[in-house]
Request: fold
Amino acid sequence: MARIISLEGFEVSQANTLKSALKKLSDDSIDIILCDVKLPDGNGVEFIPTVKQKYPAIEIILLTAYGNIPDGVRAIKNGAFDYITKGDDNAKIIPLLHRAIEKSTLQKRIAQLEKQVGKKYSFDSIIGSSPSIIAAINLAKRVAPTDATVLLLGETGTGKEVFAQAIHEGSIRKGKPFLALNCSAFSKELLESELFGHKAGAFTGAIKDKKGLIEEAHTGTLFLDELGEMHVELQAKLLRILETSEFIKVGDTKATKVNVRIIAATNRNLQTAVTDGHFREDLFYRINVFTIALPPLRERTKDIITLANFFMQQFARKTGKHIERMDENFQEKLQQHSWKGNIRELKNVLERAAILADDTVLSVAHLPIDIQLQKTASPHLSAFDLASVEKLHIQKVLLHTNGNKTETARLLNIGLTTLYRKIEEYKLA
Reply:
């Protein structure tokens, strides 16, 4: 058998016991195992789970002189690629090996892609070294292995979905579904159908049963972005899922059980929404189990150039251009900008710059006109001018509020946007 297989171009390694086979598996790179059922130290059918547990990509073909249906069924259930009887194997074995090698190669490729995807969405993919983002990452790492509901707070574009995916990848639900839904993108009726699904005939156009995202995310994670925009009536149904792990589809009369972890995000102040009657108080306390506040980019000034470099390289590859660096004026303009759209805005700016670039260096001319024309703040403020007094006063109030920007803006009687602009202008971040 070894000679026949070798003549077909396969590299063959032989073992006469299961123990010696396991040794070869640990020493060599094996794709397929041809295994007899009866061996001196065990049974080939029972050997399959041992191999599959440690080497899931290896395909196993069982050979036996005593073919019987129960053994064949058990072998396939245990994960064997095929089960054939000796005597009629010579004509079958080579085509079988080629099919097995195709499956093994595909399995390895899938495993490699899963590893790449896992890396892409892991905590290592979150770029930044500023204290505020490191603190947020550390909190997310602590909560990820648990099954706790997580609430991510932050402005639009701060990377809430990236954090949600990283938490999912760091949990026991890794490898299970991760589904995301923006609650502000649908009307109440459409959102209810998308989330909870419906039964055929529940409304005009519902010609067949439909699973909602909550059911599709069973055993995995559902990320609800812009939760503060969800209609109050749907909030009650979401609350029931969090409390009882069950819900009722639109048009159904019985409850559906589901095992799903909820990660929610919002850029709204939910406590204010509760006071205003736009958000259920009971849901707020149920969803607010573990809160992580993601800092806006203007509070992460030391990360701006790091992120910009990452996006520059990403879009250089995408556009097929050889962009090596950003010049000093380009970097200075990036650091001066207020970044109201946060990381998403920075990414868009770098994509635009990469498209416009004709050289290996990005310059101010590649930036949007509003960023090009912004004025440079004076680094040296006089001790007697109004700006110096304003800067000192803002510092004192920030110290008084322990860095709470909303409270600082209230005490200063200015808008929050104005405060952020002043913080950026005076380099107080």
